[in-house]
Amino acid sequence: MAVASIAVRSAVGAALSAVIAARAVRRRSLDVSGGAAGFAVMAIHLACGYRYGALLLAFFFTSSKVTKIGEDRKRRVEEDFKEGGQRNWIQVLANSAIATVLVILLAVMTGGQDQCLDSNDSKFITGIIGSIIGHYCCCNGDTWSSEIGVLSDEQPRLITTLKPVRKGTNGGVTLQGLLAATAGGLTIGLTFVAVGLITAECSFEVVLRQLLAIPISAAAGLLGSLIDSLLGATLQFSGYCSVRKKVVSKRGPTVTKISGMTILDNDAVNAVSVLLTAVITAYVCIFFF
User: 253 in helix, strand or coil?
Assistant: First the structure.
């Protein structure tokens, strides 16, 4: 029965992922390489479990929408602005590789059967599920924070010193951006709980406790954004280019340093913040569930 269920999900996942990936490339949310990577990642998520496919899709669709808000203003601020976002395969994997490994591991351990967060049943499985939740809360929260925060009329402040910095500075935060990060995480939590009501079979008491995933997810979205900002302010270079009149991430003769060291690029910062948020959320879920 489990094998048949996985086979059906695999077929549905491949068909749905092909349609979504092709649409994303046409709408410039992904470039061709990003579309190919996105297809593979989506198909694997959906094959391993509809609920985890739903988390990925909630992240993808909502983050794509917020990326397109205020494109004219973002074009004047962002160093590597691309219409629609046009994320490539590296960016896709930076935001999904860890979760992909986790959903495969979870499917192997559970036989492809959806499980509730319940440490009394299995702390390890609860930890894995918590990690997946934390992963997408971080991804969604950070994207919402960046894309909505940059549109704020408030001047960003560097998270390490609270000094005002230019828009586009890595590690610069605004209240609007932090609230957006919280909302991004909340969206993932709501998706997890809502889909789980359909896909998972648990006792009434356990089902009620699943509601705790919603505030935990909101906090994870905020935490992921804060970790990303802290890493960006310290390990990622930001400087102001007097020629381009923009904040840039590479040193040069016309660039004045604002903050950070040239250790991590944006994709590496995303990957590290996702990993840390996933681990922290796993332990939080084991404790509360």
Answer: coil
